[in-house]
Amino acid sequence: MSRGGLTASPAGWDGLPPGAAARLDATARNLLVAANELDLFINGQRTALGAVEQQLVDADATMRALVTALATERRDGPDHGALAALAYATAELTERLERLAWCWSRWPIVTLRDAPLAVRDVTRAAAAALRAADGEDLDGRLRALDDRRRDTRVVLRRARAGLLASGDERLALAGREVLRRADDAAEAGEAVRRAMLRLAVR
After folding, report:
1. Mean pLDDT of all residues in 122-133
2. 131 Cβ partners below 8 Å, 6+ apart?
3. pLDDT score at 157
4. Mean pLDDT lowest for which of 3-7, 104-108, 187-191?
5. Which of 58, 89, 127, 188 is the most buried (most CB within 10 A)?
6. Are 40 and 90 in contact (CB under 8 A)?
7. Is the pTM for the entire model greater than 0.85?
């Protein structure tokens, strides 16, 4: 990995504790499947909620197992703190995605669909960044994640403006909760990006 920038190579993950890269890759796969299932769920396939939940539960368990492994490993190193921070951030992302999915199951407001779909894109970008151990360009993946978070902010601003213009108080109350959950999940994606930056420049 270039120290002058953030360009990643397979060697960029050298020195991580045994099994760490494999756990990150497994979690990335879970997040990608969860994002795809979330897409189906938001677009009306209600049975996809169970698949979203299962993938997120698996990802959360993998990251918490990584934290436990780091805590019990005798050999400490400069990467341990950064890696633990990434694991915690990713686990938080899974929890916030699950809350968003459940919120949408209660209030599937079609006019706000772009908000959870934007979070779907954040999740896909986060999954791609976590899979940077496969040798792809980490810098580009992190930029893409940042771009998706910025896109989400735009979507949320427009959605909030639409709620205000609707004049429907009940819709506005439910809609604000949906948008809050979407914003929380997108912010968790941003936390994953920051944690990956910290690990990348170790």
Report:
1. 90
2. 24, 25, 28, 29
3. 97
4. 3-7
5. 127
6. no
7. yes
Is the pLDDT reported for residue 24 higher than 70?
yes
CA distance 138 to 114: 27
Tokens of 56: 């997120």
User: What is the spatial distance between Cα 54 and Cα 89, in angstroms, rounded to a whole number?
Assistant: 19
Q: What is the CA radius of gyration of the chain?
A: 18
Q: Which amino acid is at 73?
A: E
Tens of pLDDT, residues 149-188: 999 999 999 999 999 888 888 999 999 999 999 999 999 9
The candidate with the shortest Cα–Cα distance to 90, out of 13, 151, 34, 157, is 34
- Cα-based distances in Å from 109 to 6, 17, 67, 93, 126: 40, 44, 37, 22, 25
Residue 87 vs residues 30, 58, 138, 191: alpha-carbon distances, Å:
14, 13, 17, 11
> What one-letter code names the amino acid at 152?
T
State the alpha helices, DSSP H only, in the chain.
20-42, 48-72, 78-106, 114-130, 138-166, 169-200
Distance CA 54, CA 26 (A): 14
